[in-house]
């Protein structure tokens, strides 16, 4: 065998080195820290923290669960109801982890997974705003990473929080909630109600007039003729388990007290029936996303208008209904993820 010349030898060594590097890259990919809970104070609980909240009648614990780890993007989820649960966000697990967005489930006081003092003196927007603020501090969320997403009643709470504490926020997301309870009631009665079968609507309205809300027929009519059109546009037998758990775990006491019995807006003695911050939206300066839906119980045109009222807003309208994360997840999550990433990159317009 002839001796190899110096240039040939160098070339062979380089080829061997490149091959080894390629093998190393294939066998040792760079690991993401997104799912690394090592050394965190919630590792042993799988991200769950029961956070003490001080109230006028004592200190109680609320449930939170952190999903993922991204110190730059942390989304606190405010569920609806009032008296609902974090289970309404059950399919967020299917969309946000691949984007490495950290999100935090949270059951408000008197909701299923949290303490239940069952004291109506705490069932006010003022209390719940301060509760969110205490949760924020406990989780060390701040203006550099804190996104607040509220859906339905959670949207009311998110707007109220922003109007008082927006200096703590990096971004605000209002999902499926208008800024005026009277406007919500008007839309339900003047637009959505007349779309129903007149005989069905009359039967529902007669039972409401007689306060016959516990009648199984009332729930049956609503579920089959209203909920499957405007709450979640799927046959009832195909509703996801997390949505069924949301309804199973709903606290009716706080729900009726604040929202009322009727699904056609807020009526009777509901404490939220006159709630309206439409005239204050212009005070909100932080980047804001309004997530509406074509078939929602909330007027999608009104939600588009809300995005023009805040100082730095964007609107996305899905083809879904009130739980549009389930019946139009493609539009819902693509809009949500783009908003968060645009804000994070300083490219939000």
UniProtKB/TrEMBL annotation:
One of its GO terms (molecular function) is hydrolase activity. Residues 1-22 form the signal peptide. Residues 75-329 form the AB hydrolase-1 domain. Keywords: Hydrolase, Signal. Pfam families: Abhydrolase_1. InterPro entries: AB_hydrolase_1 (IPR000073), AB_hydrolase_fold (IPR029058), AB_hydrolase_sf (IPR050266), Peptidase_S33 (IPR002410), Pro_imino_pep (IPR005945). Transmembrane segments: none annotated. Belongs to the peptidase S33 family. This is Proline iminopeptidase-family hydrolase. The lineage of its organism: Bacteria, Pseudomonadati, Bacteroidota, Flavobacteriia, Flavobacteriales.
